Amino acid sequence: MYLVTLVNTAELVKITVPMRRPPSFRLVGVEPPTPINSLDTRRLSSIEVNGGVAIGIKYIGLKLKKEADLLNLYKKVDATSKMRFHSSRRLKLHTRLSTATIVFISLVLILIALMQAYSLGVNIHSRHLALIQVFSSITVLVYSLLIDKNGFSSLSERMYSCASRLGELKQKMYPFLESGTPEQYAGFRDEYHEILKLYEAAAINDFNADYMRAQLDMPENYKFSLHVKAWLKTKVAFMYILNFSQYFVILVIFGWLLYWLWFGPAVIT
Q1: pTM for the full model?
Q2: Where are the domains of the chain?
Q3: E strand or H helix at 77
Q4: Which of 114, 163, 216, 229 lies in the 20 to 30 Å Cα band around 74?
């Protein structure tokens, strides 16, 4: 609410305040209360006061609206921070699993070479052995190139740094949630956008399931019913399974190839 304190003069004064929505006004200092003749609510809010109006205007201004905006901004910063933390952990797990996958395939190649040298395994002298070895070597090469291109490790670090800085911004905002001014709101908003711009390249890897996890971690801001919460948890689990399914597929393929070489054709019908 605007609290406008009026001082009696004989002049006509127009007070122009840029805003998106019309505020509510309470005029103090004029008896009887001064009427508001016009209010442009499209781009500017203009107040024309006739009679005794205003050389001193005191704005306790936009307080309710800006408090709501500051709370919304705090909620947005909190959600983004939690989402980036989840993204950092997910990318770090990708780094570990990718490395483990390359090590696993390399060990399979070494084991096949040893089996061939010592004639171990039912199908070790199969004509398909050369195809398996070439396929495994190409898989290691392609997977190594993909890991280098994706840069999971560096992206994970950038996501973590972004989340840490957003966490610091949250701590700065918290004391002003109830008493923040428009200037403080603008400063916090600009700082939030500066942080996002600084880590814009990392944001390309935003994953929708990370945002859902952040929402589930904020029950005070996102109030879901039990069945909606259960559905979101199921959806998050499904999306994470799909995101990491490549490692399981490679494990199964090479596990079956190794089993077939050792124990025979009974596995492949």
Answers
A1: 0.69
A2: 1-61, 66-263
A3: helix 63-117
A4: 229
